[in-house]
Design goal:
This protein folds into 3 domains: 89 residues, PH-domain like (Roll), CATH 2.30.29.30; 30 residues, no CATH class; 227 residues, no CATH class. The longest helix is centred in the middle third of the chain and has 17 residues. It is of the alpha+beta class. It starts with a strand and ends with a helix. The protein has a 7-stranded antiparallel beta sheet with strand order 4-3-2-1-7-6-5. It binds zinc ion. The site of zinc ion has 7 residues, from helix 8, helix 12 and helix 14.
């Protein structure tokens, strides 16, 4: 029996909870001030990525695919993987097959069932997709969605983006790893694609008046990354099959329909938007970044949308949230501000913010 302190995320909120963790050989049990006693059997445990020396080791469990247990105690990790071989690597096809109760050999025969299962269980499947698949798919989505637009990169702009991510990560150490790419596109748009990539347009940088507004939108997109929403949406639409037709151009697809299909893939549900909002709000508060920025940017978009009438498509992902769902004002009202007594920290200096805004020239 070996014990340590670890960090637990329940998969519902971005809040990290310290737990007392014990390895009982056939199960991990943990509890903490805000976490009732939980027992995860070893068989149902899965590493998010292979254990790497010096890196926090992240685990999830079949019983709660969105939850994360993060262990930094090297001795504890070594002991755990020494008696549980399946925890040594990322997800394999065998793990996925095990989850669905099939043998790897039977997968081919069960292709139709796989398809159905993916359709029925997209959120669950989204959490178990191999990282290599996420990254490859994300790169392909980025290429398609950016449609040949120039990627804007300046040292000062990249530095400012890094500063924002670091400020958010300081408040929320479990912040998912993201890469943020800015494209010279006029639409006001931001979207998260598979594999932790966030794509931002020049239109969005132009529209944002303060670094806090921009940071609010980024934090919202990070919420989608955290919850694996892009992956879940892809799976929901039929997983690999849809993707292969998008990217290989089979089924007579052309560039326009591919973009339209991707737009459908990325259109988030109202529930997903609420989850991303909640994540953003907590991440901003944790980092002492004023959530008024997120609120005022949402208000701006709402106004833009009213002005543009039905032309909500111009607003991309952000706009679609507002055009397709009622209750926008509630959403804005749901944004919690900093607790009283907490002084907001400016996320960027004025100079850094201007450098970011000018990234596309
Ligand atoms: Zn969203």
């Amino acid at each position: 029996m070996i014990e340590t302190l670890a960090t637990y995320f329940d998969g519902q909120s971005a809040r990290n909870r310290t737990v007392h963790l014990r390895d009982d050989g056939d199960a991990l049990s943990f509890s903490g001030p805000e976490t009732p006693k939980t027992i995860w059997n070893i068989r149902g445990l899965h590493p998010i990525d292979a254990p790497t020396k010096g890196q926090p080791y992240r685990l999830t469990h079949d019983a709660k695919p969105g939850a994360r247990l993060i262990i930094t105690d090297e001795a504890f990790i070594q002991n755990l993987i020494s008696h549980s071989n399946h925890l040594r690597g990322g997800y394999s096809m065998r793990d996925i097959a095990n989850i669905f109760g099939w043998t790897v050999g039977g997968l081919g025969v069960c292709a139709a069932l796989t398809y159905l299962a993916m359709w029925i269980l997209p959120d669950r499947v989204a959490h178990v997709l191999p990282q290599s698949w996420r990254e490859k798919t994300g790169t392909e989505m980025e290429t398609t969605l950016s449609g040949g637009a120039k990627r804007c990169q300046t040292p000062a702009g990249e530095h400012a983006l890094g500063t924002i991510v670091a400020a958010l990560a300081e408040g929320t150490p479990s912040l998912p790893a993201v890469s943020i790419h800015v494209y010279d596109m006029p639409l006001v748009n931001a979207f998260a694609v598979s594999g932790g990539k966030i794509i931002v347009t020049r239109g969005l940088l132009d529209k944002a008046e303060t670094a806090e507004e921009f940071t609010g939108v980024l934090a919202h997109e990070m919420g989608h990354v955290w919850h694996f929403h892009p992956e879940a949406q892809i799976v929901r639409l039929g997983g690999m099959e849809v993707l292969s037709s998008i990217f290989t151009g089979t089924n007579g697809g052309n560039a326009t329909t591919n973009v339209a299909m991707l737009a459908t893939v990325l259109r988030s549900s109202r529930a997903a938007e609420a989850e991303a909002d909640q994540f953003a709000n907590e991440a901003l508060i944790n980092a002492k970044i004023d959530p008024k920025g997120l609120r005022s940017f949402f208000e701006k978009i709402m106004k833009m949308e009213k002005d543009q009438g039905s032309n909500g498509a111009m607003l991309g992902e952000i706009g679609s949230i507002f055009s397709t769902h009622p209750g926008t004002e509630d959403r804005i009202k749901n944004i919690q501000l900093l607790p009283s007594g907490v002084v907001a920290k400016p996320v960027l200096t004025d100079q850094e913010w201007q450098a970011l805004k000018k990234m596309c020239g």
